[in-house]
Amino acid sequence: MKPGTTSVTFYYPLTAPSGLPPTGLTYTNLDLRYTRTETPRVATASTNLTVAGSTTAVWVASTVIEMDADTGLHRFDVPDAALEAGASRVVFSVCDPVAQSIIPISWTVALEETADEIAAIDVDSTDTPITLAKAIEIAAAYAMGNAEYGDSSTEWTVFGRDGVTPIATITEDGGGNRSGSSIP
How many of the other CB atoms lie within 10 Å of CB of 154? Predict the structure, then answer.
């Protein structure tokens, strides 16, 4: 999940100690707890849940509602603060520390950038920025032997999968250091 995502809802079944879906829960006894990993300080929070207005209600932080009494499926609207940037994972748990009416549950959410954001990272140190995806394509083509030096020993061309279409031209200075690149 992308760090900083807001208004997030999770669906999980609750189970009573009997192994059956719980009945007659006092939702205000339930705690939604979360721990953010790799943060500068211990960031564990406990939030008493309140009951959402209905199964179709809009998201409201720290609310719960039973979606299906037969399966024990419940909806949990988690606080936005749990998913803020700065941690790689968030571990959520739900328990009833008062009446112990449910078997505690937990789940982990990985916070990571999306593929589009990673692909937009500028990885070139010359005047022609390229995306990470393009850099990987060029490196893979080079590794597969789809590259050749041009007329001079300071310029080489990397070809695409077809072995014909140029996907990059790299220029080196006299010392063998890359001094420029051209991405068609």
Answer: 16
